[in-house]
Amino acid sequence: MTPIMWLIIFVILLGIEIATMALTTIWFAAGALVSFALSFTGIGTEAQLVVFVIVSFVVLILVRPFAKKYVNGAITKTNAESLVGKQAKVTAAVDNLNATGAAIINGQEWTARSVRDDLVLKEGTIVTVKEIRGVKLIVADDAR
Known about the structure:
By secondary structure, the protein is α+β, with helices and mostly antiparallel strands. The chain contains three helices and five strands; from the N terminus they run αααβββββ. It has a five-stranded mixed beta barrel with strand order 1-2-3-5-4. The chain starts with a helix and ends with a strand.
């Protein structure tokens, strides 16, 4: 392949990465850059493609864990995700077997279910939100 083709591939992949910031194409852009440099040495197209694939996957395997940690590591939980671990007050008895229950947290009432099917949580109980499934709080009474 000509150096121009590798340069075009590199620019396209880099542009996609800049547009998405999803850490998906940057690895292949690195491979394209190395293949671009190799294209000036007279190495054949097949060898350039092999180097492109190898470099892309080596960079992916070695760099991705660090990049994810530092680039996406500072994501702040928002909306419902931020409720996990907080306390809520049961406003209607939580009974999984009868499919009833509600709890209030941050001034909003949610449908609530217990982490255990055999446990009924009475109205007024303070519970901890363990997870959110769809539009339901999954709660546990830490006192038990």
